[in-house]
Amino acid sequence: MLVHPDMLTALTPTSSVAPLPTVIPNPVITVEAGDVGRRTLWVVVVLMGLSSLAFYGMAFRVPVQKRLFHILTSFITTFAFLSYFAMATGDGVSYNTYTETIHHKKVPNTYQPYQREIYYARYIDWAITTPLLLLDLSLLAGLSGANILVAVVADVIMVLTGLFASFGSKSSQTWGWYAWACIAYLVVVYQLAFNGRTAVANKDSKTKAFYASIAGFTLILWTIYPIVWALSEGSHVINVNQEIIAYAVLDVLAKPVFGFWLLFTHDGMASTSPSLEGFWSQGFGSQGTLRVGDDDEA
């Protein structure tokens, strides 16, 4: 039996299902600092270094008994100098990987992975310098040791939870840690604004007015920090260059500007500034020294 070729074609099975489209994953986009951001870091390195030298020089102009604020303030800008030097040279930097969902109307959602630069050296700086700043303000106001301890611990918790939030890979992680950081910050505000004002009320009018001004200035700046964080590392609204510039302006105002204001005013109030005697200026007395060989003589 002969079969016509057209009949063979008709009898050949065919598929009516179109091949499924191949989904190609989106490449990872790296979000990092550009030339503007790197130059900004170097500018702050210079400013922090010069400020530190100036503060150490101012410390040598006053007696040892009156150098407490000078030393604390010098340490603040010194640690900031080291932190910015690390960031400017490429150290103290890591990357956080996160994914954004891109919604479509007629096709399935797609996902875009990102890697964003995180300057963890900045958090190390804040974990050291912000407690020193709090010590400056607390000692100026005359806060009790208990209140100072609470303020410093809350401040460290605020910085650490901010660091954890910056490395969160999920929205719940990021904003959960951020919420804890804000709660800790409110504790710091309470100590400075309420307990600090109560403590400084017992001092002279110049000290009260000065504390109100410099503490208010500091709290305003510190309130802007979490706003910048939310716009940068939190919601990724601003890029890394803008983040660096925003933090640089805040750090310069909160450290060198704060320091010069504090020390110039403090030196101008020499008659009412605290004077530390004893171990601070003279070390252990003869009764407190350890004498090698005393037991053998006995």
From TrEMBL:
InterPro entries, alphabetically?
A: Arc/bac/fun_rhodopsins (IPR001425), Rhodopsin_retinal_BS (IPR018229)
Origin: domain of life: Eukaryota
Q: Would I find Membrane among this entry's keywords?
A: yes
Q: Which UniProt keywords apply?
A: Chromophore, Membrane, Photoreceptor protein, Receptor, Retinal protein, Sensory transduction, Transmembrane, Transmembrane helix
Checking PANTHER family in the record gives: BACTERIORHODOPSIN _OPSIN, NOPA (EUROFUNG) (PTHR28286:SF2), PTHR28286
Q: Which family does it belong to?
A: Belongs to the archaeal/bacterial/fungal opsin family.
Q: What is this protein called?
A: Opsin-1
Originating organism: Exophiala spinifera
* Lineage, top ranks: Eukaryota, Fungi, Dikarya, Ascomycota, Pezizomycotina
